[in-house]
Amino acid sequence: MTAVSLLAAVALATPAGAAGFNTLSGTQPDIWSHRGASLFSRENTIEAFELSDRLGADGFELDLVLTRDNQLAVFHDQTLNVRTNVEDLFGPERARDDGNFHVADFTMDELRTLAVDAPRDEFIRNPAVNPYAVGADTVFRIPTYAEALDVLATTPAAQVLTEVKTLGGERPGERETMIDLLIDEWKARGYTGPGAPVRVQSFDLPFMTDMQARLDAEGMRIPTYQLDWRLLLDLGATTDEELSVAFADTYGMFDGLALNINVFPVDGAEFFSVLNPNALDVVGAAHAAGLEVLVWTLALPPGVNFEAEYVPWAFDPSLPIDWQNQYAQLYALGLDGIITDTPDIGVATRALFAESVDPIPLPASVVFLGTGLVALFAAARRRASKVATS
């Protein structure tokens, strides 16, 4: 295929109506609320997940840990000290020698009795300052994964981005147990093929590798993402072409990567020069390898005061805003999804970006594009071989 026909083929494959967005699919990027609507509610709770939909997010991200009796609990940490009243209810004798109360030492029934502490509790419960306030009698609880998925029954357009937290092999059988539980839960709900409203990610590469192999063996199509923050340092690539090949070789079995904001040249990326010392085009390299790229986590835009600026805008989104630059920079990079504490800002600025920007041109370098296609085909062959031998 000549260079001209190669570019023509790619142009023909680009979906119509994707002006301004250079995502892998050509459609607008997804906005994921980080641990639910965690600025206005308590993170990783049913209340936060339900509020996520009201803020306009395409879906909510949550964290999963494994209880003592092998159930999937929605909670961010492997210990309960900081975010719950565990010591008040169970006493210091349930702590380990390190002084921590570990999730792995408690059953799901025990976790249900805990109240999840809420930073800014007065704000969360005061309708005079919080447009999404809950009543004073609301007690935030740790839900199960099944209960979190039940939220989709009332928010049918939403999706769930499931982050699996493991102990990295310290707990025998943990990875296999969590994979079994997830597969069973998804199957029971019919989440087995394209269009299923769930995705899965983890920092634990062995877990993700085993999860992908199991999904392939089961004939299930659940999107998978490898989470990382120092990936560029580990891969050692010094050019975009090298990075694309490394992405395909190392992560080609997955659907994408979920990377820290500090690997991208945008406002708020304080450690960009450390985590991306060669200023590589991470999104372009990943897309050339056939991988989507999600970014985590956007908090408030730099310099924005939460109560003085963000909260009034949440009451009335028609108010003028001048702090959407960070989102616009991420959209311009072609990111496929954004995990954020401010999904309402993300949705609003996504619409503004789509209206104000012309279609982003195709990559100028045919060599880079060709390298990416070779890497993509190689990854596809490896994945097909893996499925055939499962």
Structure, described:
The structure is a single chain. By secondary structure, this protein is an alpha/beta fold. It has a single domain (3-77, 143-388), classed as Phosphatidylinositol (PI) phosphodiesterase (TIM Barrel). 39% of the residues lie in helices and 12% in strands. The chain contains 16 helices and 9 strands. The protein has helices at residues 3-13, 46-54, 86-90, 108-112, 121-125, 145-150, 174-188, 205-218, 231-235, 240-251, 272-275, 282-288, 306-315, 325-333, 343-356, 366-388; strands at 30-33, 59-66, 72-74, 159-164, 198-202, 224-228, 256-260, 292-298, 337-340. The protein has an 8-stranded parallel barrel, surrounded by 5 helices. Helix 12 (282-288) crosses helix 16 (366-388). The two termini are 34 Å apart. The model is unreliable at 1-18 and 359-390 (pLDDT under 50).
Give the topology.
Blueprint: H1 3-13, E1 30-33, H2 46-54, E2 59-66, E3 72-74, H3 86-90, H4 108-112, H5 121-125, H6 145-150, E4 159-164, H7 174-188, E5 198-202, H8 205-218, E6 224-228, H9 231-235, H10 240-251, E7 256-260, H11 272-275, H12 282-288, E8 292-298, H13 306-315, H14 325-333, E9 337-340, H15 343-356, H16 366-388
Parallel strand pairs: 1-2, 1-9, 2-4, 4-5, 5-6, 6-7, 7-8, 8-9
Antiparallel strand pairs: 2-3
Helix pairs in contact: 7-8, 10-12, 10-16, 12-16
Sum this structure up briefly.
With 390 residues, the protein is of the alpha/beta class. Helices cover 39% and strands 12% of the residues. It is globular.
